[in-house]
């Protein structure tokens, strides 16, 4: 299967951060569901942000070797999309056109260039951008359907 669900950093971090058990358990289910579907993707940016956040930002930080091990597991469970020239150009275009922060625009651009239909993220800058739907896994009751059939996100978010 090709990747159609791009998983943002915050979902991976919540799986490790046990300060909010409900979000942590939901993140675990989301990651397991997307991984099992074979339709998930992340990028090198997501991997780097995950390592930084879990070793420096969390109140209950994890050690570097644990962060690297988990990042390797996520990289194996999902398609790892590259940050290419095309991604950078798209991110710059979106930043200029919509005023989006560059790093958020790069997530969007990686998903778009990588052929993803949906970005799974808690802190989406909007609900839809140029045909790519943002889905909040902590607030969207239809996430299970979207994991099974990512194209259904278009119908569910109209």
Features:
single chain, 158 residues, Rossmann fold, six-stranded mixed sheet, globular
CATH architecture: 3-Layer(aba) Sandwich
How would you write the strand order of the largest sheet?
3-2-1-4-6-5
Here the CATH topology equals: Rossmann fold
| The named CATH superfamily | 5'-nuclease
Domain unit count: 1
Derived from helix and strand composition plus strand pairing, the structural class reads alpha/beta
Shape: globular
Largest sheet: 6 strands, mixed
Q: What is Rg?
A: 15 Å
Strand content: 5-15%
Count the helices. How many?
8
Which CATH C-level class is it?
Alpha Beta
Poorly predicted segments: none
Fraction of residues in helix: 55-70%
State the order of secondary-structure elements, H for helix, E for strand: EHHEHHEHHEEEHH
């Amino acid at each position: 299967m090709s990747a159609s669900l791009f998983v943002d950093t915050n979902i991976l971090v919540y799986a490790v951060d046990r300060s909010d058990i409900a979000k942590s358990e939901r993140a675990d289910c989301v990651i397991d569901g997307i991984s099992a579907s074979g339709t998930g993707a992340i990028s090198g940016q997501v991997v780097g942000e995950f390592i930084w956040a879990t070793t420096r930002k969390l109140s209950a930080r994890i050690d570097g070797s644990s962060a690297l091990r988990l990042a390797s597991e996520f990289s194996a469970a999902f398609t790892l999309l590259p940050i290419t020239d095309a991604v950078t150009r798209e991110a710059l275009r979106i930043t200029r056109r919509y005023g989006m922060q560059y790093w958020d625009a790069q997530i969007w651009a990686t998903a778009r260039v990588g052929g993803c239909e949906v970005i799974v993220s808690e802190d989406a800058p909007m609900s839809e951008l140029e045909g790519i739907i943002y889905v909040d896994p902590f607030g969207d009751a239809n996430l299970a359907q979207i994991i099974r059939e990512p194209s259904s996100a278009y119908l569910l978010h109209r």
